[in-house]
Model the fold of this input.
Amino acid sequence: MAGPERPNILLIMSDEHAPHFSGFHGHPLVQTPQLDRLAADGVVFNNAYCNSPLCVPSRASFMSGLHLHRIGVWDNGATLDENIPTWAHMLRAGGYDAVLSGKMHLVGADNLHGFRAEIEGSRSKHPISGGRWQQPHRIGNPASRGRVEDAGAGDSPHVQIDDRAEAAALRYIRERAESDQPWALCVGFILPHFPLVVPEPYFSMYYPDRVDLPAYAPGARGIEHPAHERVRQTFHLYDFSEDQVRRARAAYFGLITYLDEKIGRLVAALDETGQRQDTAVVYTSDHGEMVGEHGLWWKNTLFEHASRVPLICNWPGHWDGGRTFGGACSLVDLTATVVDLARAPTPGNLDGDSLLPLLEGRTGDWKDEAFCEYTGHATNTPARMLRTGRWKLNLYHGEAHELYDIAADPGEQQNLAGTPELAAVERQLLRRVQQDWDPAAINAAVHRSQQRRAIIAAAERGTHDAKERRRMSAIGG
Done:
């Protein structure tokens, strides 16, 4: 039974929601009244980061509580080893009913990874694949531009899937009202992930007059890092008209408001069933979205709009509301927090630290540190970010690194790497970011993984092609 020691846990994870685009983070246009209320009564972590700005790696890291280089989920075609326990395993071992409604983007045969059940599937699963990094970088398909060019009002499969995930989650909450067993429900929404298409009236709510343009131009000062140009090349992110940008951002804003209303209904169901006081509610996202900032769209980069995530923790009567916390943290810390909150057993090797002492007001001491790794598509070299205090350092294997003062330059417009008066800071950050991360070894590991998976994928395609040839032969005969 849920209670003051072991609450129910409603964990809501969206996809591609940059915290910058929400009312509780100060955006003047994006309407998120339900999240604003949750934030006002809860604790907001203003500098929370994902551990990789790409769906599958980020979620695998969050589920396992381990950084990418420890689990080898380098990209969207890699699998999480079924022998690695996830927080769902841990909570169920501790007596919880842990279920998933919607997206968790788990690749391979194991679609549960510790959840007792997937009460509504997202139908958003990548097959095992082995996309190969190219030297030099391969230019991508111009068709990806359509994600921006086709933005506007309408319906999409992602909206429909999220509608079903919400309905299943509401049924579960109502069914569990009389249960003696504590529960943990993970609701995985796909929104506001592209396609940037949203039902009315959510598009007209913003377009054409209540939508702003990107604040940060590409390469505004100094020479821009080649990592960012690789992303533009991969997705052909050039020469959009102002109206195309407005329409795409308006659709993104509308998807956030559409999502916000779903979150409000989930929380309302806790009130209606008398479970609100016994349920801790957490909202976050797997990564952010550039939405035109720096001339970039989607994620695939260590810029703040892609790597930072919203994080709200709310448990009425237990965690004092109206607080914000500015220290850097990441989703592996959230993993440790969920397990700590449930008083569940752990394997003892999690990379994160529990935020529970901060939530409970027992200590103000915190490591103020977050790591984010990127080894997916739209690049050809591994990268790792360290955020601590006001500083953010991005390390790229075989290339120059970046150093930003996020306090003075939140838009990351001025790369301070090589500044003489910051030499000591830079050396310290470089030592820390490489303390347990050897870029040459990571690069080799990624290439080995890509090669292994390419062979498996080719074999699977060959089997499929042979079956198709036999089928067509039978039809023709």
In short: The chain has a mean pLDDT of 93. The chain has one domain: 8-440. The two ends are 63 Å apart (CA to CA). DSSP finds 13 helices and 17 strands in the chain.
